[in-house]
């Protein structure tokens, strides 16, 4: 199902992603973060659905469908670096800060900070070219709302 997307992501110079593949890659990144502590909690799934509904203007069913696709994509794609490269190439800097904020929302969805999730957010921020200050401010904005 995602063979073409994965093949493209694994090219040395991948083609730009279309809008649907950007949504899939972004959502798969959220799923990867939620799974990084080996506990894919219902609170994280609910948070992912809420994030993608708001970010992409989806209804409940469309958000659940996108997340389900992203769960499959995340399981099939071993490399976080290529997801982030595709997102970095497709998303302006200000929106990448929004991606980091969304990642922090998922990381903090269960009410606890986990060092595996923290490490993955820091790695992704770096790979997306989001500086430490902007990532920390994104986390603080999420912490305040949580």
TrEMBL record:
Pfam families: TerB. It comes from the Bacteria. Residues 24-140 form the Co-chaperone DjlA N-terminal domain. Gene3D superfamilies: TerB-like. SUPFAM superfamilies: TerB-like. This is TerB family tellurite resistance protein. It comes from Roseovarius gahaiensis.
